[in-house]
Design goal:
With 288 residues, this protein is an alpha/beta fold. The protein has 2 domains: 136 residues, Rossmann fold; 136 residues, 3-Layer(aba) Sandwich (Rossmann fold). Helices cover 43% and strands 18% of the residues. The protein is built from 9 helices and 10 strands. Strands 3-2-1-4-5-10-9-6-7-8 form a 10-stranded mixed sheet, with helices on both faces. Strand 2, helix 2 and strand 3 form a beta-alpha-beta unit.
Length: 288
């Protein structure tokens, strides 16, 4: 296991829904890989006019959710060390606070979050854009094998995502698939048409750029096998397709791509809503 994986605990958000239990499984396996503490967290805002967010029966249900999650964590990774915690505060604020001391925040994907009452995309994106650490969104039962996929744009935040993806691939002893979705400029298309067959040269330049963006991390992680993928398709669609057989998809959130000018957060948002595999969202400040 790479020492870069850090020593901060993994925080898993618990709400009793099936996706959150899948998130606990993923988080438990990750905590065991990193040899760090797993922290199971439930947060719920207080009801109007009440100091406590829930009444007694609901309070018992919250603890039941936490104990079930703890049992699943121990079943998934028996040696894992864990703690449980309740936050009687606004859920997003509570989880953002947790992120200050966490290595990762892991949450389940679903239609409506029990944490905040907001649609999952709103809750997860609020965490992803404000969290002090990467956020992982898990929808289905995590896979135990398969490559790690990373979206590469050439931006600063993309470089951070590449670093986290290399860490994950090294920890799992899996292949890293680096995907660069680029949009040819009209001038490039005109030149290729005029020169007849020069399109391969334009693609070769994009491949050189991709290799350049990966080179520093490849030197740092020589044990990781890397596959480079170029596509002119939409980034989210390509990542969804390639990611179907992956253990994890890693993307950056924030900033605009040098090559595509993609709207900030558009690709992470699409992946959070549609990916069936865990998605790690990295933003500026989530350094390696």
């Amino acid at each position: 296991m790479s020492s870069d994986l850090g020593s901060q605990p993994i925080v898993a958000c618990v709400d009793g829904l099936t996706p959150s239990l899948h998130a606990v499984r993923w988080a438990a396996a990750e905590a065991l890989r990193r040899r760090v503490l797993l922290r199971l967290v439930h947060a719920q805002r207080p009801q109007p006019g009440h100091d406590s967010p829930v009444d007694e029966p609901q309070r018992e249900q919250v603890w039941q959710h936490l104990w079930v999650a703890a049992a699943i964590a121990h079943e998934t990774a028996p040696p894992v060390r864990l703690t449980v915690r309740k936050h009687p505060v606004d859920p997003v604020a509570g989880l953002l606070e947790e992120s200050h001391t966490a290595g990762l925040v892991v949450m389940g994907a679903g239609g409506q979050s029990r944490f905040s009452g907001l649609p999952l995309g709103s809750t997860a994106l609020a965490l992803a854009t404000g969290s002090r650490c990467p956020v992982v969104v898990v929808r289905d039962q995590p896979r135990e094998s398969g490559p790690v996929v990373v979206g590469v744009t050439g931006s600063t935040v993309s470089d951070l995502a590449i670093g986290h993806a290399f860490d994950q691939a090294a920890a799992r002893a899996e292949t890293l698939i680096a995907v660069h979705a680029w949009r040819p400029k009209p001038a490039d298309v005109d030149i290729a048409a005029a020169m007849g067959g020069a399109w391969t040269d334009i693609e070769a330049k994009q491949d050189q750029l991709l290799a350049q963006w990966l080179s520093g991390w490849q030197q740092r992680y020589p044990q990781v096998r890397v596959m480079r993928v170029l596509t002119t398709r939409r980034a989210a669609r390509c990542l969804l397709d390639i990611g179907q057989s992956a253990q994890l998809v890693v993307v950056g959130c924030g900033g605009r791509s040098r090559g595509t000018g993609l709207v900030r957060g558009a690709v992470p948002r699409a992946l959070m809503h549609r990916a069936t595999v865990p998605v790690m969202i990295v933003r500026a400040g989530h350094g390696r």
